Structure formats: structure tokens, C-alpha cells
């Protein structure tokens, strides 16, 4: 089906299963250790061999010698994969840096070799015997030093509305501030991992991957295979956050190692390799300029962003957070990209929007303070129901409703307008807010839905569940559409033999994949009605029965039926802009003596139309809030400019939030539906939670202490010299 | 490693330079041309109530013995360095990072993994509470969180204090602060932390 017109009444309106807080159907497997992740398919072959990857010891240069003799003689070793014996490894459009180095090295810890051995211990020991000689080349690693060399990427032309320069120059009240955000790591709990098995020229990969079809196509491109020869399977994925959108060295090297040795090979990236071998969210420098009238009406908004990447890589699109945000007649958005020789920068949860919201939403707080306005009032004055650039209405924008609901629940009225005034024991206490604004994109998505002879339902699609709750919402969709209990629906995901779905990324997965199942179920409803001989348009599906015109049949009477359906959104988007909105509230304490920051409360009020499963959606938003807290207070990939790598490349040194860091979190969804967004009348929320909480924390730190830190993360050494006198 | 070296270059430069292999090979006592010889050992474990005898490369961690040799893959490898907690199992009733200990060190020990706590049809109270409270997302840290939580409540019950215990002479209580502190060795990057806390709190309440 093509989704072109606003959704009218449809079977999802019943909301008997959809929209109800529902425990995940994959929960029993995940909590008992019976959910199987990529590295764990030990039963697929009796003779699995182990791969162990060696990363490059230089950031840029050339391999001048590669001595694998000792490694090959080491106990248990079957072979050593290097660029010399791997054959051609092509780069697909989804990868910037080659997944196997040689002879050129383009980033630190780029794979230079993989030992294949009978056991993990043997492979690891042998990898330490490989002698690699390098000719080092000079590289550029620090964004600040390369900022002036940055240019506008070809796909990222400046956007301008009105006369920004004049309006900003003449504005009565101005904020002109530069923020920095460091590089961030996805740091998902499951390292990238793959098992590769060749059978008669066909390659099967069990691989941790968010996007099955992209992964399959990329592997085929890399190895010069017809895509029909490649199968990718990924039923459970131990977190992705964008880090598993594209294949990485584990997938390609497992396949090559298996081809060279004639054995199936399993490979996981060792944790200290993950941070430099794979991808990260690039660091940014962001200049925000806000020009306003005395009453707070914005006259000019400017957002200029600098980031770096390898030659051919993409820019971090931080102005994406500002462009749809607030009304102002005169606007400028600039994205500039410098060439750096760090590892590849790529998408991490809410790319662009997350780091962009860390700055625009803090700068708005700065403007509110300048104006003596409540920061929520400043947002209200500048709220808009049309996109400030295109002038098209948003399909649904309830931003100020989110703020009103949140302010009431959070007790916002208790906030001191003057910073550094509230003391509780040893702590200065502050509150902050920030908007959550995130695009609601959609992608074509297909699914196959079968009614089985016993009246149960099977859903199959290559959609992935990276912790997002896909299994459950797809099951709920089929249950609602076909009138069966959720327990009667089996959902199978993450296999390229299934119809191609939207995959998991960019907050598009939930909307698109449920809409694909909706499309297939609509076809199946017709097929069922035809099978039992009732009018499909008049048929009602409920309680395992189909009824129409006074007749009712058990679904088992329809016999076994299968339909494959697909949703496309080709007609959507012409008249409206599609976004999701929310408001983040934070209260925290800053120790008056040590400047240690402790979060006290976090609240997000979000709106995305219908929420398919409030249980997993809340969890998604909470996860974003916590990742945002990490970005505000802890997380920073530290560049060693001497050697061109991220020095803190493990989970002890790259600090992500732990239990003790996170306070009570509350997530509220506004009631309502968005029939313009999808046939499901709602959008995904997977990235909404991380847009705004970091700025809300920064703003709360300012409210507590009067100190504005513009270089994230906000750590105690940046506060201590400026703390209020006690 | 020898201890009488004088480094006139940084250790990192030494290791990455093209001549590094020769330099390292010249250092007494350790050769870059061969790995230390493999030695195998025998270990007898009771895993989830079942006695197992394994012949293992001595370098095999308890984690890899479980995952790769017994195919008990419920226990996860997140970092292999004791930094994430995904590999938490119980050895003789106490929680332990199974990646930080060699299997051959556990001869005669009793190991309980997530598979030993319960099954989908007959879950442990903690497993059921995690499902009820949505105490996970991707599920990869979950077995470690659950094993850690079960053992952690035993630690509180046994009177073991923590960093946040207000009074070291009084019995520790299973307060929110105590639970969060004691669970902080188990990272959840999806960050289901409030839901995990709710699950543990419910189980603790039922025990009390």
C-alpha cells in the first residue's frame, strides 16, 4: 500500500492490544539467557573456528612489512587473513574507511590482520606474534586546529531565510556563544560479532546488525558476490544506537577467514578495539547566535557547526536541531566539515539532533536569562505551528502542551529565576528545561503475515529489535488487525530471507515496520474474508473470529493463508513536516565544596501521536535521557593528538552512566493521534529521549550555580574554579 | 617482563615502531617469536547443579568455559575486562565477573548461571520481575544484571556494607541508594536502570 492520504478509521483504532502497556514478548527469552545473539549460534556447524582481529598501531600511513610466520606456526592456527591473501575487499556506499587495511592505513585500530585458530585463546595468542612494520604519515586529529580548513560538504549547503546578518546586527538583545561537544561512543553492550558459514558458494552470516538488507548488500559488494548468495541473520542484537547500522570488520573478515580456511568462523571485536576500529559520533564546535526583541521574540537564529571526518565522510548535522525549532524570520544554518584522520565518524543516536540540541537548547536558556524571562515562556513566545523554513505546517506539534504538562507535574514554579540561590545541605540545587525536537522519518517496509491452520498468526520481516521493542509492537499490530490475542502471534525477525523492512535507525523503525505489518494484515483480512465467503469490507475481526452480515466464522475455518504486504510513503511529506516533540525537566544538586553533580529528578513529557506500546516506548525515552545525561556529565572520547586515536577506548575509561548516576525518571506521553504520520497514526520515539536532556542538565547546573559551561561534558574541574563562595 | 629496562623512547613508540619486534625479541625472558606454550588442565565444576569435567587450555576464562565449551551462552561477554558486568555469574553463591577468572581456578566450585536460575516456563522471581517491570531493552546485559541482583540481595541480607551504607555498625537496608550503588558494576547502555531498580525492589519486598 502507498500511504498518501491521512489515515481514516481503520482496525488499529480499536486499541485493544495496541496502545496498551504490554510486557515484551521476547522478555522470557532475554531474562533466561535463551535469546541467541550473533556470536552464540554454536549449533550451526560442528567445527566453528575462532577469529581474532589485530588493529593497526598507527592512525595514518602504510604497512611496509607484515610478518605472520610466527603466528601461522603458533598452536592451533589455521590461517592469518591480511590484505595480501584476502582478495579484493570493496567498500560499499555505507562505509567510509576500508574494513581491512593494507597497504594503506586510514585510521587507528583499522583491522590489519585476523588470526583464525581452533580456539579463542590460540587465536589471541597468535595475534600477538604478528609483526607489522609501518611507514607513519602525518595526520590531522584535532578539530579545533583544522576548523579553519573546513568546507561546506556538497550535500549540506547553507540554509538561509530572510536577512539573517542585518537582523542579528540590529537585534536589541543578543546571544552569541560557541559550544563544543566531544566525540561520543555508542558503547553498546554487545561488541560487533559475526559467525560466517559458506555452503556451496552461499554465505550465511549471523551478525549483529540493525539493517539486515543494507548489511546483506554491503557484504555482497565487499566480497564481489551476487546478493542472492548472501543471507544475514540477526534475531537479537545487543544494542546498536547507530553503531550497527553498517557492517564492520567482523562481518567481512569472518567471511574471508571462513573462505580461506574452509571452516565456519566466529569473530567478535574485542572491547578495546571497538572504540577506534568502528565508528563514533564526531566532535563538534557550534556557534549559536540568537537575536531577540526586548519582549523575547526571536528576530534572528544562527547555528553554525564544524565537525571532522575522514576524507569522503559525512558531517555531523547539528543545525538539524535548530532549523525546525523556533520561529524567527531571519535564519542561518551552516554545516562545515574538516578532514581528520581519526576513526570514521558516523551516525549515533539522533545524529545531528542530539549534539545540536545540546547547544541550541542551552543557548535559549542563556537568552531567557538575558531577557529575565522564564525559559518556558521564551519557548512559548517563539513557538510555531509551521516549519520556520518551509512554512509548511507540522503534522502535529504539541511542544507547549508538553511544557505545560511537565511544568505542572515537575513543580517548575518552585524554580528560582535567579541562579545560585537554592541551597539544600551541601548542595546548590537547580532546575532546567529543554525542548525535545526530532524528525519522524519513514521508510518502505514489508512483512509476511500468515494465518496458520490452528488459528495462530505468524509475522515475518527482516526488521530488527535492538532493544527497541520491535517484537512486541509488531505482534500487537498483527493481534489488533486480526482480532487474536497477542499470545497467539509469533514474530520472527532479523533474517534476510524475510521481506525487507525499514530496519532499525533514525527513529523510523517503529512507525515504518508496524505500517508494513498493517499492510500485510489488511491483505490477509481480505484473504480470510474471501476464504470463508464474507464481505471483506464489512468484516469484523475479534476474539479469533471473523464476522460480517450476521455470520461468524472461527479463523481456523479460513485454513492456512499467507500474505506479503508492503507500505511505501511516497506521497507523504508534500504538504506537512513530520516531527516529534517533547519537553525535558531536570533537577540536580551541585556539591558546594567539590562541585560534584548529582541528578535528583528527570521528567520527559513527549508527544508522537499514538504510542504503540507505552511500556517499551517509556523505556526507550528513559534510555535516551540517560544517554543524554552521559553526554552532559561524563562521556568524552579523548583524542591523543600524538598518535591520532581515542585514548580511552574501553568501558572503564569511557564512562557511561551506571545505576548510581541515574535518579528517578518519569516519562509521560500526551494522548492523541497523528493520522498524517502513518496508518498507525503515530511515530517512533527512539531518539526523542536524547534530544534535550543534556541541555536541560546544563541549564540546571547554571540555575544551581550561576556557572555556564560551554564545553561538554560538564565535569567538576570546569566548575570548581568558578563555584559560588561558601 | 624484565625490570631493568631503561626506556629512552615511550613504551608506545617502542611497541609500534617498525623495528619494535627486533627490540622486543632482544629483551630477556620473553620472545615475540612464539607464544608461551599452551598448557591444558582438567577442571571439575558443578554448573547449575550438574557436575561437569572439562579439559581446557589453562588460559580459558570461566566465561569462555561456560559460553564456548558448555554452550551456556546466557552469560554474556561485553568487555572481557571486568568493566561491564555482563558476565556476572554466581560461584559458590557469590557474584563474580566470570571474565576475570580462569576456569581452572575453580576446581570443585559450584557455578550458577542465568540458565540455572530459571527457564521461560519456570522463571526465578527476579527473572519474572524483570519482564514485568521491563527491566531491559536489548537484553545483552540482562543475565548479568539478574545474577548480580540475586546475589546482591543476599549480600545485604548477610549484613555486608557498601560505600553508601550510612552506619557501618547497623544492618544495611535494601534502600534505593544501596541497590543502585551495589548494582553499579553492571552497565546497561540501553539504560533501563529505573525499571531494573523497580524489579529488584519488588523481589526484595517479597523476600522481606
UniProtKB/TrEMBL annotation, chain A:
EC category name: oxidoreductase
Aldehyde oxidase/xanthine dehydrogenase a/b hammerhead domain: residues covered: 32-138
Upper classification of the organism: Bacteria, Pseudomonadati, Pseudomonadota, Alphaproteobacteria, Parvularculales
Official protein name in the record: Xanthine dehydrogenase YagR molybdenum-binding subunit
Record GO terms (molecular function): iron ion binding; xanthine dehydrogenase activity
Family matches, as SUPFAM superfamilies: CO dehydrogenase molybdoprotein N-domain-like, Molybdenum cofactor-binding domain
Region (Disordered): 1-31
Enzyme Commission identifier(s): 1.17.1.4
Top-level taxon: Bacteria
Species for this entry: Parvularcula dongshanensis
Pfam family, one: Ald_Xan_dh_C
Alphabetized Gene3D superfamilies for the sequence: Aldehyde oxidase/xanthine dehydrogenase, a/b hammerhead, Aldehyde oxidase/xanthine dehydrogenase, molybdopterin binding domain
This protein's UniProt keywords: Oxidoreductase
TrEMBL record, chain B:
Domain 2Fe-2S ferredoxin-type, first and last residues per copy: 41-117
Gene3D superfamilies with a match to the protein in the record: 3.10.20.30, [2Fe-2S]-binding domain (1.10.150.120)
Annotated PROSITE patterns: 2FE2S_FER_1, 2FE2S_FER_2, TAT
SUPFAM superfamilies: 2Fe-2S ferredoxin-like, CO dehydrogenase ISP C-domain like
Highest rank taxon of the organism: Bacteria
GO cellular component: periplasmic space
Pfam families xref list: Fer2, Fer2_2
A molecular-function term among this protein's GO annotations: 2 iron, 2 sulfur cluster binding
Entry keywords, A to Z: 2Fe-2S, Iron, Iron-sulfur, Metal-binding, Oxidoreductase
Transmembrane segments: none
InterPro entries: 2Fe-2S-bd (IPR002888), 2Fe-2S-bd_dom_sf (IPR036884), 2Fe-2S_ferredoxin-like_sf (IPR036010), 2Fe-2S_ferredoxin-type (IPR001041), 2Fe2S_fd_BS (IPR006058), Aldehyde_Oxdr_Iron-Sulfur (IPR052914), Beta-grasp_dom_sf (IPR012675), TAT_signal (IPR006311)
Keyword Heme among UniProt keywords: no
Name of this chain's protein: Xanthine dehydrogenase YagT iron-sulfur-binding subunit
Organism of derivation: Parvularcula dongshanensis
Amino acid at each position: 500500500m502507498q500511504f498518501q492520504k491521512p489515515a481514516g478509521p481503520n482496525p488499529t483504532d480499536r486499541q485493544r492490544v495496541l496502545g496498551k502497556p504490554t510486557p515484551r514478548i521476547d522478555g522470557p527469552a532475554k531474562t533466561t539467557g535463551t535469546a541467541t545473539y550473533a556470536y552464540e549460534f554454536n549449533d550451526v556447524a560442528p567445527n566453528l573456528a575462532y577469529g581474532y582481529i589485530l588493529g593497526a598501531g598507527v592512525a595514518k600511513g602504510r604497512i611496509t612489512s607484515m610478518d605472520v610466520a610466527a603466528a601461522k606456526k603458533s598452536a592451533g592456527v589455521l590461517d592469518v587473513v591480511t590484505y595480501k591473501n584476502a582478495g579484493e575487499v570493496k567498500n560499499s556506499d555505507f562505509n567510509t574507511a576500508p574494513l581491512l587495511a593494507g597497504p594503506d592505513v586510514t585510521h587507528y585500530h583499522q583491522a590489519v590482520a585476523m588470526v583464525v585458530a581452533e580456539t579463542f585463546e590460540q587465536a589471541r595468542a597468535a595475534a600477538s606474534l604478528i609483526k607489522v612494520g609501518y611507514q607513519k604519515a602525518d595526520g590531522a586529529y584535532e578539530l579545533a586546529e583544522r576548523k579553519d580548513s573546513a568546507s561546506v560538504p556538497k550535500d549540506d549547503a547553507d540554509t538561509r531565510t530572510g536577512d539573517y546578518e542585518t537582523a542579528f546586527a540590529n537585534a536589541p538583545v543578543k546571544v552569541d556563544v560557541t559550544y563544543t561537544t566531544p566525540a561520543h561512543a555508542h558503547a553498546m553492550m554487545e561488541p560487533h560479532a559475526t559467525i560466517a558459514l559458506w555452503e556451496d558458494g552461499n554465505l550465511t552470516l549471523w551478525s549483529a546488525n540493525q539493517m539486515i538488507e543494507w548489511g546483506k548488500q554491503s557484504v555482497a559488494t565487499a566480497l564481489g558476490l551476487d546478493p542472492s548468495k548472501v543471507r544475514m541473520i540477526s534475531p537479537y542484537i545487543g544494542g546498536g544506537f547507530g553503531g550497527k547500522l553498517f557492517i564492520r570488520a567482523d562481518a567481512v573478515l569472518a567471511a574471508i577467514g571462513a573462505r580461506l580456511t574452509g571452516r565456519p568462523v566466529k569473530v567478535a571485536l574485542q572491547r578495546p578495539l571497538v572504540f577506534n576500529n568502528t565508528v563514533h559520533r564526531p566532535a563538534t564546535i557550534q556557534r549559536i547566535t540568537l537575536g531577540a526583541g526586548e519582549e523575547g521574540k526571536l528576530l534572528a537564529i544562527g547555528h553554525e557547526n564544524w565537525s571532522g571526518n575522514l576524507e569522503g565522510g559525512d558531517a555531523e548535522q547539528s543545525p538539524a536541531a535548530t532549523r525546525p525549532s523556533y520561529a524567527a524570520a531571519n535564519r542561518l544554518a551552516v554545516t562545515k566539515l574538516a578532514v581528520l584522520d581519526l576513526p570514521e565518524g558516523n551516525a549515533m543516536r539522533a545524529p545531528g539532533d542530539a549534539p545540536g540540541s545540546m547547544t541550541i537548547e542551552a543557548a535559549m536558556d542563556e537568552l531567557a536569562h538575558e531577557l529575565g524571562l522564564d525559559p518556558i515562556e521564551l519557548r512559548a513566545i517563539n513557538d510555531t505551528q509551521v516549519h520556520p523554513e518551509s512554512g509548511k505546517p507540522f503534522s502535529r506539534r504539541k511542544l507547549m502542551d508538553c511544557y505545560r504538562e511537565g511544568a505542572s507535574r515537575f513543580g517548575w514554579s518552585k524554580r528560582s529565576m535567579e541562579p545560585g540561590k537554592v541551597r539544600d545541605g551541601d548542595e546548590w540545587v537547580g532546575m532546567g528545561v529543554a525542548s525535545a525536537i526530532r524528525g519522524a522519518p519513514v521508510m518502505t517496509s514489508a512483512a509476511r503475515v500468515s494465518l496458520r491452520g490452528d488459528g495462530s498468526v505468524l509475522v515475518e520481516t527482516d526488521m530488527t529489535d535492538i532493544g527497541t521493542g520491535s517484537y512486541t509492537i509488531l505482534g500487537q499490530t498483527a493481534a489488533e488487525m486480526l482480532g487474536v490475542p497477542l499470545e497467539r502471534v509469533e514474530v520472527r525477525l532479523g533474517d534476510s530471507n524475510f521481506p525487507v523492512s525499514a530496519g532499525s535507525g533514525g527513529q523510523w523503525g517503529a512507525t515504518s515496520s508496524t505500517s508494513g505489518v498493517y499492510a500485510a494484515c489488511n491483505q490477509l483480512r481480505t484473504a480470510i474474508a474471501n476464504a470463508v465467503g464474507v464481505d471483506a469490507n464489512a468484516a469484523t475481526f475479534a476474539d479469533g473470529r471473523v464476522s460480517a452480515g450476521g455470520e461468524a466464522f472461527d479463523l481456523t475455518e479460513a485454513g492456512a493463508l499467507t500474505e506479503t504486504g508492503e507500505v511505501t510513503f511516497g506521497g507523504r511529506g508534500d504538504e506537512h513536516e513530520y516531527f516529534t516533540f517533547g519537553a525535558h525537566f531536570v533537577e540536580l544538586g551541585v556539591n558546594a565544596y567539590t562541585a560534584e553533580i548529582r541528578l535528583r529528578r528527570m521528567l520527559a513529557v513527549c508527544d508522537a501521536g499514538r504510542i504503540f506500546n507505552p511500556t517499551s516506548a517509556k523505556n526507550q525515552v528513559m534510555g535516551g535521557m540517560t544517554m543524554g545525561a552521559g553526554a552532559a556529565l561524563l562521556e568524552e572520547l579523548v583524542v591523543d593528538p600524538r598518535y591520532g586515536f581515542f585514548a580511552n577506548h574501553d568501558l572503564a575509561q569511557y564512562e557511561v552512566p551506571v545505576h548510581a548516576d541515574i535518579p528517578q525518571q518519569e516519562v509521560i506521553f500526551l494522548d492523541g493521534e497523528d493520522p498524517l504520520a502513518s496508518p498507525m497514526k503515530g511515530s517512533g520515539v527512539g531518539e526523542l529521549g536524547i534530544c534535550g536532556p543534556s541541555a536541560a542538565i546544563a541549564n540546571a547546573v547554571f540555575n544551581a550555580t550561576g556557572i555556564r559551561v560551554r564545553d561538554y561534558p560538564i565535569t567538576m574541574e570546569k566548575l570548581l574554579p568558578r563555584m559560588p563562595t561558601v | 617482563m624484565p625490570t631493568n629496562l631503561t626506556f629512552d623512547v615511550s613504551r608506545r613508540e617502542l611497541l609500534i615502531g617498525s623495528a619494535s619486534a627486533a627490540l622486543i625479541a632482544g629483551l630477556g625472558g620473553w620472545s615475540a617469536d612464539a607464544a608461551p606454550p599452551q598448557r591444558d588442565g582438567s577442571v571439575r565444576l558443578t554448573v547449575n547443579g550438574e557436575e561437569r569435567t572439562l579439559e581446557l587450555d589453562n588460559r580459558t576464562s570461566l566465561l569462555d568455559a561456560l559460553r564456548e565449551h558448555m554452550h551456556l551462552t546466557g552469560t554474556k561477554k561485553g568487555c572481557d575486562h571486568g568493566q561491564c558486568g555482563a558476565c556476572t555469574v554466581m560461584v559458590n553463591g557469590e557474584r563474580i565477573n566470570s571474565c576475570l577468572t580462569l576456569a581452572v581456578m575453580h576446581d570443585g566450585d559450584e557455578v550458577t548461571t542465568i540458565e540455572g536460575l530459571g527457564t521461560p516456563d519456570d522463571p526465578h522471581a527476579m527473572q519474572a520481575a524483570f519482564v514485568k517491570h521491563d527491566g531491559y531493552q536489548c537484553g545483552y546485559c540482562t543475565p548479568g544484571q539478574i545474577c548480580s541482583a540475586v546475589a546482591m540481595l543476599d549480600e545485604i541480607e548477610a549484613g555486608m556494607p557498601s560505600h553508601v551504607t550510612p552506619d557501618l555498625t547497623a544492618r544495611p537496608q535494601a534502600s534505593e541508594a544501596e541497590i543502585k550503588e551495589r548494582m553499579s558494576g553492571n552497565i546497561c547502555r540501553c539504560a533501563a536502570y529505573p525499571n531494573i531498580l523497580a524489579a529488584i525492589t519488588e523481589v526484595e519486598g517479597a523476600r522481606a
